[in-house]
């Protein structure tokens, strides 16, 4: 399975991996202590994400094409998950290319406020400058703003595209942080056992006792709402489920022969943890990661919906908030970001289900 | 199993719960002190308008709240005050926090209780029914519905309900009416949309769990035996399958409190203007009223802790197969 794929990665690649992480860390240290702003905080996340993805995702898949093909065949049999994947790819494309093609999502224009989407016409009360009075006018949607505008005249399409970018950023990066912490916590806890296990699991219990959203709101309240902080806060609070799952997986692995064998051959603890335990739990980690992305995206949307999001970015939650304010005059402002949010969550749920079935050797596909 | 075993188990669980409570309190304290702004700043923003010298205000506030003491003394004060029920003073409402909580908890409670009843009863019913009719059109419909229910963002669902039923059709008010007596039909009607908003996602989840739990039990040997004995299907499903399937579902419902229910209730209260704890915490955040925010976070954690504890104990008591260790 994935284990066999990952175990092909050895020696030299390990060095490259650690080297790349080290370079990133050095740049970060330089950034903090010597020069100012080599990279934006978010760009560090991206680079980190890219290194992990190449080493633990793309390279193993490429190195073992036969198994990759096998999994792809299995995922394909779950038709809904292919739809999900297609939508996610579409969304990523929109998030990457979209901002170049659309207008500025923050541009306010009260002349064009509350325009309906193309194909809809509404009655709108407008101030007529010549007649110097309010007149009721039929306002049709225009191709200038295909999805309409909100109550400040901002282009809906541009805001949705910007929102897609924010949602994917938060969804992917925060999930990555959460599963990294969760995996390390779980594996370390299971492998070392004893008081380490005891301490880490009690800490996990304490973190799990906090209602997720309340803790998130509390942290944002204390540390202030910037996108980087929201990503960090979600990542640093959302790892508990992964830790539990990975721990139970790793506990059953710990007593298996191949771990015993490498131990008796004199392998160090770090080697066993990083070369044997982590690659073996990766398939369940991938499943839990895919299935927890929707929750993360919703958390960010909810935060920005109630006004605790980053005030400088236009996310779907912000648009939804504007939508609730103008429900009686412009229904589309609330409907459109919600549909995007709904489809995104649905897509990740479908994909996660498909991947879970594909990785489960017992499922009949 | 002997009674002593159960008692010992309960005592062990209580000690454990006390430890977790301690951990929860400690983490909030650490977060408060690690944060970039001192609690005094939040007061300062509200008080400096009235006084001349900001430095004096800071010193006064810090002395008043013990922020000038060494950190471990602050920690001890924090824990002791919480334990004594002295949860601070909410300056944005000019009330002790505990009074504020007493005044508002019931709104959250009624919303959460009704949503749980609504979602659990309907969810389990649909789930069990769709498992019995596995691979029929009803089953597919239920599965599709539960997928949609899980994926629909509940705050958006709330807004859509308001849009359709309040703004377009005018059946309900767009805001929750706080003047209504608690036990009245009018209050129940005002809660219909909020309960659907909060309950739909939960219901969809329970439908899935109930379906898979029922399917698991339908394949068991004792079900085949029961059918072979010639028991009517009603008894087989009602007594043999349902009773075995229900326990894990109840656990899941209880554990859901922490993740789905509180977050959902927080947002639902904000959307519909229900003056529950979520709404209070929301207002307090924008007023910089930190004792309220801390207390509500702690209350959330404690409620989760004690429902989990109660579930565990009741579960052990209900299910004789569980051993206490």
Short recap of the structure:
The complex is a heterodimer of chains A (365) and B (325). Chain A is mainly α and 365 residues long.
Describe this structure in words.
The complex is a heterodimer of chains A (365) and B (325). Chain A is mainly alpha-helical and 365 residues long. Chain A has 14 helices and two strands. Chain A has a two-stranded antiparallel sheet with strand order 1-2. Chain A is elongated and about 90 Å long. The two termini of chain A are 16 Å apart. Chain B is mainly alpha-helical and 325 residues long. The model of chain B has no long low-confidence stretch (mean pLDDT 81). The chains are: A mainly alpha (365), B mainly alpha (325).
List the helices and strands and how they pair.
The complex is a heterodimer of chains A (365) and B (325).
Chain A: H1 2-6, H2 11-33, H3 41-63, H4 65-76, H5 79-101, E1 121-128, E2 133-140, H6 156-192, H7 194-209, H8 212-223, H9 227-237, H10 240-254, H11 257-264, H12 269-305, H13 316-325, H14 331-359
Antiparallel strand pairs in A: 1-2
Helix pairs in contact in A: 2-3, 4-14, 5-6, 5-14, 6-7, 6-9, 6-10, 6-12, 6-14, 7-10, 8-9, 10-12, 11-12, 12-13, 12-14, 13-14
Chain B: H1 3-34, H2 39-47, H3 54-64, H4 71-84, E1 89-90, E2 95-96, H5 97-132, H6 137-151, H7 154-168, H8 185-190, H9 192-218, H10 221-228, H11 233-272, H12 277-287, H13 290-318
Antiparallel strand pairs in B: 1-2
Helix pairs in contact in B: 1-13, 2-3, 5-6, 5-9, 5-11, 6-9, 7-9, 7-11, 9-11, 10-11, 11-12, 11-13, 12-13
Number of strands of chain A: 2
Given the structure, what is the number of helices of chain A? 14
Report the major sheet of chain A: 2 strands, antiparallel
Oligomerization status of the protein chains: heterodimer
Mean pLDDT of chain B: 81
Largest sheet of chain B: 2 strands, antiparallel
Question: N-to-C terminal Cα separation of chain B, in Å?
Answer: 12 Å
Provide the gyration radius of chain A in Å: 24 Å
């Amino acid at each position: 399975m994935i284990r066999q794929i990952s175990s092909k990665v050895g020696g030299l690649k390990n060095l490259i991996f650690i080297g790349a992480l080290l370079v990133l860390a050095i740049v970060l240290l330089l950034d903090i202590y010597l020069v100012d702003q080599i990279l934006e905080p978010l760009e560090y996340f991206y680079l980190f994400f890219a290194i992990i993805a190449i080493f633990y995702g793309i390279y193993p898949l490429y190195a073992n094409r036969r198994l990759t093909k096998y999994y792809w065949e299995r995922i394909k049999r779950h038709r809904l998950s292919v739809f999900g994947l297609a939508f996610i790819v579409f969304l990523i494309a929109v998030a990457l290319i979209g901002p170049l093609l659309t207008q500025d999502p923050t541009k306010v224009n009260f002349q064009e406020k509350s325009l309906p989407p193309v194909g809809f016409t509404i009655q709108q009360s407008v101030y007529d400058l010549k007649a110097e009075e309010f007149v009721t006018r039929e306002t049709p949607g225009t191709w200038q703003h295909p999805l309409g505008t909100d109550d400040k005249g901002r282009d809906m399409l541009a805001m949705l595209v910007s929102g897609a970018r924010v949602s994917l950023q938060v969804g992917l990066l925060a999930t990555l942080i959460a599963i990294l912490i969760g995996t390390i916590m779980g594996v370390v806890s299971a492998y070392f056992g004893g008081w380490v296990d005891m301490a880490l699991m009690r800490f996990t219990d304490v973190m799990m006792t906090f209602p997720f959203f309340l803790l998130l709101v509390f942290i944002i309240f204390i540390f202030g709402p910037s996108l980087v902080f929201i990503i960090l806060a979600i990542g640093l609070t959302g790892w508990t489920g992964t830790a539990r799952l990975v721990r139970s997986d790793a506990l059953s692995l710990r007593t298996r022969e191949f771990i015993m064998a490498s131990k008796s051959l004199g392998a160090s603890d770090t080697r066993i943890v990083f070369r044997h335990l982590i690659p073996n739990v990766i398939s369940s980690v991938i499943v839990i990661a895919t299935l927890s992305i929707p929750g993360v995206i919703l958390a960010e949307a909810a935060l920005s919906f109630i006004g605790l999001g980053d005030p400088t970015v236009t996310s779907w939650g912000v648009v939804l908030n504007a939508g609730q304010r103008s429900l009686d005059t412009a229904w589309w402002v609330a409907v459109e970001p919600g549909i995007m949010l709904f489809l995104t969550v649905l897509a990740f749920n479908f994909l996660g289900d498909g991947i879970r079935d594909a990785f489960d050797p017992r499922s009949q596909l | 199993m002997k009674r002593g075993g159960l008692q010992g188990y309960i005592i062990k669980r209580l000690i454990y719960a006390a430890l977790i409570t301690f951990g929860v309190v400690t983490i909030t304290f650490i977060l408060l002190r690690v944060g970039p702004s001192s609690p005094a700043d939040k007061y300062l923003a509200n008080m400096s308008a009235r006084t001349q010298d900001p430095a004096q205000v800071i010193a006064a506030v810090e002395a008043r709240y013990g922020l000038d003491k060494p950190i471990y003394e602050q920690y001890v004060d924090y824990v002791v005050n919480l334990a004594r029920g002295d949860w601070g003073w909410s300056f944005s409402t000019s009330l002790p926090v505990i009074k504020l909580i007493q005044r508002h908890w019931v709104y959250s409670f009624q919303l959460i209780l009704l949503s749980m009843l609504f979602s659990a009863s309907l969810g389990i019913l649909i789930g069990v029914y769709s498992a019995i009719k596995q691979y029929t059109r009803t089953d597919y419909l239920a599965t599709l519905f539960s997928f949609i229910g899980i994926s629909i963002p509940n705050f958006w669902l709330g807004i859509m309900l308001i849009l359709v039923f309040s703004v377009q059709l005018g059946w309900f008010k767009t805001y929750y009416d706080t003047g209504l007596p608690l036990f009245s039909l009018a209050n129940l009607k005002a809660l219909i949309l909020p309960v659907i908003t909060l309950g739909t996602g939960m219901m969809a989840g329970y439908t899935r769990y109930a379906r898979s739990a029922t399917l698991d039990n339908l394949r068991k040997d004792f079900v085949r035996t029961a059918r072979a004995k010639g028991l009517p299907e009603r008894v087989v499903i009602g007594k043999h399958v349902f009773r075995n399937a229900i326990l894990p579902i109840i656990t899941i419902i209880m554990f859901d409190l922490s993740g789905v229910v509180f977050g959902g209730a927080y947002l639902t209260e904000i959307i519909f203007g229900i003056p529950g704890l979520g709404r209070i915490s929301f207002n307090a955040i924008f007023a910089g009223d930190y004792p309220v925010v801390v207390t509500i976070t702690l209350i959330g954690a404690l409620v989760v802790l004690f429902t989990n504890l109660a579930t565990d104990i009741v579960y052990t008591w209900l299910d004789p197969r569980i051993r206490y260790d």
